[in-house]
Amino acid sequence: MDSTPSPSSSSAFDLVSRALGRYIPRGGAAPDAGPADARADRTRRRRGAEDPAAGRQEQILGAVNLDRDLIITRCNLDAPVFAGLDAVVGKPFVNLLPHGDVPTVTRRLRQVLETGEAHVARIQRLRRADGSELVVSMSILPAAAPEEGLTVSLIAMARRLHLYAAETAIGTSLDIGETAQSLAESLLAWGDVAAVDLDFAVWTGEGVTGQAKGRIRLRRAALVPDRAWPEGYVTPGEDLPGDASRLLAQAVLRDDAPQTIVIPDREAVERVLGSPRVVRALVPGDRSAGVACIPLVLDGAPPVVLGVAEVWRRADFPFRDNELLDLQELVARTAHHVDLARQHQREHTQVLALQRRLLPRTGGDTIEIASVYQPATPDSAGVGGDWVNSFPLPDGRTALVVGDVVGHGLGAAATMGQLSMEARALLSAGLAPDEVLEHLDETVSLLDDADTGLTAGYSALGSTCCIALYDPVSHRVTLSSAGHLPPVLVSPDGRAGPLEVRPHPGLGAEFALREPFDVHTFGAPPGSLLALYTDGLVEDPAVSIDEGIGRLADAVSTVHPWDTLQRAARHVVSALAPARQRDDVTLLLARMIGYRKGDTATWRLPARDDAPARARTQVSVLLRQWRTKDDTRDDVVLLVSELVTNAVRFATGPITVRLIRSGHGLLCEVGDTGSGSPRLRRGGLLDDGGRGLHIAHRLTTRWGVRWTDTGKVVWARVAT
Question: How far does the chain reach from its first CA to its final CA, in angstroms?
Fold first, then answer.
């Protein structure tokens, strides 16, 4: 029974009802209009479409109250534009909907009932008793307490209002699928079925300007309404058959001028499509007989066709000229949104490819590596600046690097790639982690410079980075951090916890905040597991950051020494990553192996003239024990002799000689307390200086220098 609300009532239904007087013309039709009134209403609608003044009156407001069973309890649809709708108290609201829209709208109504969150401004069709349809903007509002149920407000859409609302809805996403879906939902106001088929190059984010006429591969991007389709019909994500793609391309690209075409009935559709397979792929059902194909055209010289939008309707409701103009206008207004989504998809693909390229591929003989990168929104949003890298250094150590660049998109990707490559180059040149971070800090500051840096509104200030170097001989990790979260170390006995790293500001901090980067050294015996990560893995609004790091330590401590490391990394991420991921998640796991004890040998020699001879004797004995080939043994003995001779001549203090057997080569290291940098120079025939480095250059596959706290180490690798 309908009750009359009091003037003080503040329910959504009453608020909408009180606003109706501003819009309803005097002498409004009764809601139970008969057939004659319905015919008159259709006549008024046709005149309204042609008369701009009449069109302005189509923006009419109405309201319907529903109980929890979605039954109409009150109704205020007295405006003439709503005439013919079977909105009767006591009947289900879904009786007003086209059959294909019932599941989707019912789901939204139930969702508002359960959550109490309004669903605002949804373009929807309503079904009149004579079979015609009315396009409205529908909002679903929860009833105000103490009432229960819902209030559904309806605004009959004028032509201009519908075009504006459709364009606004379509431009809210940079995802190609969502953009195409919004366009298809808007097009449904003119037909029974709407589909959007995009050029495959658009779908993947590639350019489409260079394609020849008629050469187009279409993929279905959107289809409405949501229903069970006949077997063989193309649904979203599927490619159209080649014949169908060529037919649509030839239809909309006639004479190189994109045109809208209309096929009025089923007989003409079958005659044009020809093949039964193409008919099954394109025609949505027996009732949908006529179709309008509207090209999505990007203005240019020549214009570029991004795809085709198709609107199907019954043959007894042919397309009128003004409707085709509306369809073309809507598609023309929104084609640039599709192109923006294409450009975003291309940027997303490029950034993701760069991100994947920076991930470590393999470990080596002394360390096992596994990594996981999980974007926050892999389908649409720009990829963030998280990155990890792992690579062997020429001197036998392994570098582990993790960073988090501020921001998303190409600006963050460019900075991420630059910092990653710069860190790799500096570490390969022998610089210590703290020295590398000093260079990266300067790079970030330069990138933010208004004259020479990234001036397009992007700033990398505050980016973080952590660098760890693993020495497989001493089984120690040297680490420096710039504002990054501390790595987690799991010892061979299963104890796990974050490393004690002194906090430091991020890269590019103000000069007053800059301090020297600390260097921390930790023991990492064989079997240890080191986890480097970005904050997206441990940050959760429900817990503190320390608790998040503790959860990571607990998860990593459960990794068994026999577990496959890559599978273990994926398991850790799936267990810890937040359900609603707001940031990229990156994890790098490194299992320390090191060299076997019998594969390394170290000697300490005084810096005296007899040091080269003693080094030759000890190295020669060791290489015989390792059963090294005679020619290789001679080369290594000569190499070590020359490097020790240089250390005696140009340095002070004790000399350290280390020999490492790894893979298919030998690594020779000679350390001293000197600060001079050895340089290979071109000399004359009679020059004696620099002979040792020339010998090292000719006998080795690679050689270099790394700096230590007490001096330097000259290393050289010899193939065996």
Answer: 96
Q: Are 586 and 402 in contact (CB under 8 A)?
A: yes
How far apart CA 394 and CA 414 sit, in angstroms, is 27
Residue range 416-464, pLDDT digits in tens: 778 888 998 999 888 899 999 999 998 888 877 655 444 455 677 888 9
The residues, any chain, with a CB within 8 Å of residue 325's CB and separated by 6 or more, are none
593 in Cβ contact with 367 (< 8 Å): yes
Residue 682: how many other CB atoms lie within 10 Å = 7
CB 569 within 8 A of CB 368: no
Q: Cα–Cα distance between 685 and 698 in angstroms, integer?
A: 16
- Which 8-state DSSP code applies to residue 577? S
Structural contact between residues 289 and 265, judged by C-beta atoms closer than 8 angstroms: yes
Rounded distance between C-alpha atoms, residue 170 and residue 212, angstroms = 29
Question: Tokens at residue 483, please?
Answer: 């504002």
pLDDT tens per residue, range 390-420: 888 888 889 999 998 887 666 777 787 788 8
How many of the other CB atoms lie within 10 Å of CB of 3? 7
Which is nearest to 47 in space by CA: 302, 322, 292, 255?
322
Peptide bond preceding 225: is omega within 30 degrees of 0, i.e. cis? yes
The position carrying tokens 């790091």 is: 549
* Encoded tokens for 73: 């309890």
Q: Which residue has the tokens 């309404």?
A: 225
Alpha-carbon gap, residue 177 to 183, rounded angstroms: 10
- pTM for the structure as a whole: 0.56
